[in-house]
């Protein structure tokens, strides 16, 4: 069970992560999302959801039914700026990012930033861990 102080610390960290990613989107792409939230998905994965994240030109491409081009452009932009995103997250979480991916639903205007950390983060963080074998 998490203590109140532990929950407050985690909530502050998640808020800082969301703010940092919004700021990076503004700096790198010229416009940031209007809503953001971050959550851990287990002990070693962080998912940040950024809503209303499309640039005006991207929204126009969606209206022209060119969602694939929006996805391709976002993949290229994220690849070019991934170091900045990783550095920001590592400085807040104080863990090494070993994998980073970005996904977009152009129709919904939602971007997901997903970070995987080296295994061995803090224990007792309330995460449910499950494993599967084949």
Outline:
Helices cover 46% and strands 22% of the residues.
Largest sheet: 4 strands, antiparallel
pLDDT under 50 segments (min length 5)? 1-8, 123-134
The whole-angstrom Rg is 16 Å
Number of helices: 3
Number of spatially distinct domains: 1
Structural class label:
alpha+beta
Report on this structure.
With 134 residues, the protein is of the alpha+beta class. The chain has a single domain (4-117), classed as Threonyl-tRNA Synthetase, Chain A, domain 2, CATH 3.30.980. Helix content is 46%, strand content 22%. The protein has a four-stranded antiparallel β-sheet with strand order 1-2-4-3. A hairpin with a 4-residue loop joins β1 and β2 (45-51). The chain is elongated, with a radius of gyration of 16 Å. The chain starts with a helix and ends in a 17-residue tail after the last strand. Residues 1-8 and 123-134 have low confidence and may be disordered.
Secondary structure: elements and pairs:
Elements: H1 4-29, E1 35-40, E2 45-51, H2 56-63, H3 67-93, E3 97-105, E4 110-117
Antiparallel strand pairs: 1-2, 2-4, 3-4
